[in-house]
């Protein structure tokens, strides 16, 4: 008979990035269904769910409510880096673990977070290494005005500069801002070879719609848009304006379905926790590092690196054509490097200074 373990779900069903959060939520719930009927696992999950409604101020209190009001120690959720950072103090205070299954900007390694999606050495750097020789070296960066957009722009600027390229512009919109006209005008004037779009949710859809509208002007050739956070779950919301976008991630739907890697990595996260807990009553109360270490000692092979708690992932680059992503390039599964300690290309040296008298 399966033992029942409570888990938390903290994902928004409304707000400015609903498509992303709902895809993650569907993936979590599907994973729970699969685990609960799997005869090869002795664990079943019971879901304790809260809806933050896309509001940053609701994540911490609802995380605290789950951890204090139930037996759940593991929570699946958060869509933005801002919301993830809101809940980490609560996880530390009440001995919780967050299973975070969406792409993020790196430069973090909390002992309370299982990073189950890709970080920049697994998404942004492979994408830029493809874009620069194939699209050109004149880039334009646009992102949401918070840590995801800022950090990706900083990493991209370094990579583009190291390749001898140029960053022609670096612009931001608040999450939910759907008026990018000034940015479109700037892009029309500067004519970059490609645009790195790190906008989130409604802002991204509005930007691509305006860019497509501008392309109706015969004097403007629309640059290729590349992204590390646009997946199948947003195709319907973005519409035809997203056609031609090139994205990077660990997984794309083989038949053009609408879940994408947000759904799949969330589903896989549930299965990963189930495998770690299988045959080990009470293990759900262990700190994440102890859970991984004891699983390894028991002969299991966790996907999470025990030193920084990030998952190994492949890097796949795909173009949106005819309403589905079609693979362009696939890199082998690679270890996460959240602090970019092993850059494959050195930054170009600056001018050499000499002391003269």
Mean pLDDT: 93
Sequence of strands across the biggest β-sheet? 7-6-8-9-10-11-12
Q: CATH fold name of the largest domain, please?
A: Rossmann fold
- The CATH architecture designation of the largest domain is 3-Layer(aba) Sandwich
Q: State the end-to-end distance.
A: 84 Å
Shape: globular
Number of domains: 2
Question: CATH H-level name of the largest domain... which superfamily?
Answer: Response regulator
Structure classification: alpha/beta
CATH class group of the largest domain: Alpha Beta
Report the helical percentage: 25-40%
C-alpha Rg, in Å? 21 Å
Low-confidence stretches: 345-357
Please describe the biggest sheet, giving its number of strands, its sense, and whether it closes into a barrel. 7 strands, mixed
Number of strands: 12
Number of helices: 10
Strand content: 15-25%
SSE string, helices as H and strands as E: EHEHEHEEHEHEHEHEHEHHEE
Descriptive notes:
The longest helix has 20 residues, at 18-37. The strands form two sheets. The protein has a seven-stranded mixed β-sheet, sandwiched between helices. It is built from ten helices and twelve strands. It is an alpha/beta fold. It has helices at residues 18-37, 56-69, 81-94, 124-135, 147-162, 181-190, 202-214, 235-238, 260-277, 288-297, and strands at 3-10, 43-50, 74-77, 97-100, 113-115, 138-144, 166-173, 194-198, 224-227, 246-249, 313-321, 324-334. It folds into two domains: 3-118 and 260-312, Response regulator (Rossmann fold), CATH 3.40.50.2300; 124-254 and 314-334, Response regulator (Rossmann fold). Helix content is 37%, strand content 21%.
